[in-house]
Amino acid sequence: MKQYLLGPRSFWYPYIKTLPQPEHLSSWALPAFWPEGDVEFLEGTNAEVAVEEVRGNLRREYKAARRALREARWNGWEDYSRGLYHWAFCVFTSRGFRSSGVLPAGGGRLGLSSEDANGEGEKGEEDDDFGVLVPVLDVGNHDLRARVEWDKETEPGKVRLVTRETVGPGNQVCNNYGQKTNSELLLGYGFVIPETEEVHNDYVHLRKRAGGEDGARQGTAARDFLISLRPMGDPSSWVGRSRQRIKVEDGFEVLPALAHVEDSLVWDLVVAQAGHDQDVRQTVEKLLEESPGGGNVDYCLKRILASPTAPKLEGLVDKVKEALLAKLAFDYERILDPEVYEDGEPALVPANPNQELAMAYRRQCKKVLETVIRKLGGQLDVDAGSQSTKP
């Protein structure tokens, strides 16, 4: 924001002029800054929840930052507007790199300082908890399959983006933003990856919030688990495979009902059931006892996931499936609810690029839920344009 406000006096002025400009809202606004009419198209999805979280965080951050500038009598503090803050947030979110990824090892000190109102201050300590913008290298598009590395060692003081695969003349050199789902890409970059035969990126996030005094005391963060359109181990499930706890060998068959579910979520549900169900608890205890070395969770989880289900594990697996089905059916009803009016007419008819993007995203979210609900043995009723679920 400071460099933008300096205008031509800023060393970074030529670079800043290449960025989408603050006054052109539609060119940089991520979903958290869409008009309300566009955000309505995300209702019932993971993205809707995240948009509200981002908005709340930014309201608090901007209020605190503006107060700090005012109290410090920062030169021109009045020019640090909320709109400019939103622009800066979107630029950094969609283009920034983590400092440890692009700064040379041991050379992370950039002379960053905590300046006072007159531009004087002490240099801060080296810290990896910040982002940096890297002109030119920030133009690379995302490809989940791209094999790239950031080379910080070959030439002191320089960083290079190196691709580990052949790129022919006229072809695009892509970056890899990491194993991010479409929900994460939509929120952080403003796009989603379309489903193809070779790759899909459609997942629904199920969040488990840390609860109780123990969670609060230990600072346990909320945990997201994934439900996948295709089996987590499918070659096209790039993000799903990266999230799996169990790396199964060739020939191991996962129970179809659980194949689309992140395996850590399955274990989490088993532990939750064992906490209040004596039969489940006894089954888990026996599994742990018979595991190699005793207490081997991965061994137990693999036994639970295996197809066909061992007779002694059928009751446990059925209860996990029931818990999953109840949650997914609830989420499915939430995503269906805003789509039609009471008279059956469609309520969400896209009329601009934001709304079309949101509709493409929500269609895939529905497809994920429909696929996994059916795999779990649930039924989808379709009649006269309305849909619902039942066990």
Automatic annotation (TrEMBL):
InterPro entries given in the database record: SET_dom_sf, SETD3_SETD6_MTase
Gene3D superfamilies reported in the protein's UniProt record: set domain protein methyltransferase, domain 1
Top-rank taxon: Eukaryota
Entry GO terms, CC: nucleus
A GO MF label: protein-lysine N-methyltransferase activity
PANTHER family on file: SET DOMAIN-CONTAINING PROTEIN (PTHR13271:SF146), UNCHARACTERIZED PUTATIVE METHYLTRANSFERASE (PTHR13271)
UniProt-recorded name of the protein: SET domain-containing protein
